[in-house]
Amino acid sequence: MTKTLFVKRITHPDYGELYKFFELDEATRQETPVDPFDAGILLMAVEEGLPEILTITSKRGADASGYYTGEKFVVQKGSKFAASTTAKCPKNYVKLREKLILEGLLIPLHNQLFLMEDYQFDSPMIAMGTVIGGWVRGPHDWKKP
């Protein structure tokens, strides 16, 4: 006694095109309407907790947003990095900025560097130093908007 789930498209005079969900009994060929969620045809999307978005700005032109993913920190696509680095900017931040430029992830745009894709950093401190192009003490400047 096998049962098959299927969908029929119908046109309702008031609501237009609708879909009805049925279960077909293979033995009797009888169609029985079913709730698509109860039958497992449609699964409810479980809303995951959205990450808390944090932002950082600097006088030198940085204007970025990002969020934590465990111990890592993701700077969001569309963030703007300071176009230059300070004299005290650690070499690892400078090299990371150069790598992002060479990979085409950071492009020059109106005296800033524009981030083309989300980028995951090993820590919020590295993210902040790379974004502002300078030396930082900690992730304390990532703030709620």
Please outline what is shown here.
The chain is 14% helix and 37% strand. By secondary structure, it is mainly beta. Strands 4-5-6-10 form a four-stranded antiparallel sheet, with helices on one face. It has a three-stranded antiparallel sheet with strand order 1-2-3, with no helix packed on it. A three-stranded antiparallel sheet has the order 7-9-8.
Description:
The protein is mainly beta and about 140 residues long. The chain has 2 domains: about 1-45, no CATH class; about 55-140, no CATH class. It has helices at about 90-100, 125-130, and strands spanning about 5-10, 15-25, 30-35, 55, 65-70, 70-75, 80, 105-110, 110-115, 120. The strands form 3 sheets. The protein has a 4-stranded antiparallel beta sheet, covered by helices on one side. It has a 3-stranded antiparallel beta sheet with strand order 1-2-3, with no helix packed on it. A hairpin with a 2-residue loop joins strand 8 (about 105-110) and strand 9. Helix 1 packs across helix 2 (about 125-130). The protein is elongated. It starts with a strand and ends in a 13-residue tail after the last helix. The mean pLDDT is about 85.
